[in-house]
Design a protein that fits this description.
Length: 385
């Protein structure tokens, strides 16, 4: 006899036997739903769980294509005027100049302050962490050539934006990030995806706390283990300019200004409110098969509207200032998608919820993979799409 249960929030009966005994995970044990829907529908009321818990021993292997290309084509057909939103944003270079100036000023200002003092650490976390996160996302914006018309001008601005980060970052990030867009979720290509080693070692509360605290190092080191790049001249420019600034700071003001910049970069990718976007963007939540999530809250003001992440993946050629206009233009496409109400709570819920963790990422075989067989979990996972 099929196991029956009531899905709270809908009042409808669901035969959980289809899910291979998943009722043992759901009956009275599921946490509150974490994502919301602006425009609830029959398919998703924004309160109940659309699907069963994911298997925590493996990633969510799927066989479908990434969703952004098809949605982009549908939006362009329904709203051809969307092309008017595309193009570069002149404001970006002025914001970058202001933020870089602020960070370098604070670094020099703290040259006589002990690195472990409350003032030093507070400024490095509250101000430095926020501004360096802003610069990470400025580089993300510039990577899509959205600050100038010319490609080299964009790259030069990215090298400049990199200065307060303390270590050369831009050149390596650019290629990896473009591949993230072109090959979203493809195993062995998209280096935004956790590795099997991370899945094995970090799939518990302690491991997730470690990951969330030191995620900046995972994003920095993981690509080298997954897919190495061939350096080009912009890698060299990035390294030379960055090391030159670091030398000037240390030579003229001592080690503390450089420590402030490095502390700021660490906090920017650690347990910081703005760092919630790293986890919010592509981790799978609430039994959904959805690969990308947006966030429409106030922290977008500090983060180049990166919270509009479905919108960004659908139209990478639309700059940060016009992403809200894209959403307003096509609400029938975006308001029905589950989104996150809070970046800080994303971090908290990622750590404490059993239903989300390192495993909660959608993966697909690379298009050029010679593997003809399905992943052990691909059949059941793709059925939930």
């Amino acid at each position: 006899m099929a196991a029956q249960s009531i899905c709270k929030g809908t009042g409808s009966e669901i035969d959980f036997s289809y899910f291979g005994g998943a009722e043992s995970f759901t009956e009275g044990k599921r946490s509150l739903r974490r994502t919301t829907v602006v425009s609830p529908s029959e398919q998703d009321d924004g309160v109940s769980y659309p699907g069963p818990p994911q298997d925590p021993t493996d990633f969510l292997w799927i066989m479908t294509e990434e969703p952004h290309r098809s949605r982009r084509m549908a939006i362009m057909k329904a709203h051809p005027e969307v092309t008017k939103l595309m193009g570069y944003e002149p404001l970006t270079k002025y914001v970058v100049l202001a933020v870089v100036s602020l960070q370098l000023y604070l670094a020099i200002y703290l040259r006589h302050t002990h690195p472990l003092s409350f003032r030093f650490l507070f400024l490095a976390y509250a101000v430095g962490g926020t501004t360096n996160q802003n610069l990470f996302l400025a580089i993300h914006e510039i990577t899509h050539n959205l600050a100038f018309k010319g490609i080299n001008a964009n790259k030069a601005l990215a090298v400049f934006a990199n200065l307060p980060i303390g270590v050369p970052y831009f050149a390596a990030f650019k290629k990896y990030h473009i591949e993230h867009h072109k090959h979203l979720g493809e195993d062995g290509i998209d280096t935004d995806l956790p590795t099997n080693f991370e899945l094995l070692c970090l799939n518990n509360v302690l491991g997730k706390t470690f990951f969330a605290t030191f995620q900046i190092f995972f994003y920095a080191l993981r690509p080298g283990f997954v897919k190495m790049q061939t350096p080009n001249r912009w890698h060299l420019y990035n390294v030379i300019v960055q090391l030159l600034l670091d030398y000037i700071l240390v030579h003229n003001f001592g080690i503390r200004p450089l420590l402030y910049l490095l502390f700021s970069s660490f906090f920017a990718g650690s347990l910081h409110p703005c760092a919630g976007h790293f986890i919010a963007e592509h981790y799978v939540w609430d039994g959904l098969g959805q690969e990308t999530y947006s966030y429409y809250g106030p922290l977008n003001i500090l983060a180049y509207n990166v919270g509009y992440h479905n919108e960004h993946h659908d139209f990478p050629s639309i700059p940060w200032t016009r992403l809200p206009a894209l959403r307003a233009l096509a609400p029938e496409f975006y308001d029905i998608l589950p989104s996150h109400p809070s970046w800080p709570m994303v971090i908290v819920n990622f750590i404490r919820d059993k239903e989300v963790g390192i495993f909660a990422r959608a993966k697909r075989l690379a298009k050029n993979s010679k593997q003809k067989h399905e992943s052990p979990s691909s059949s059941s996972s793709s059925d939930r799409e």
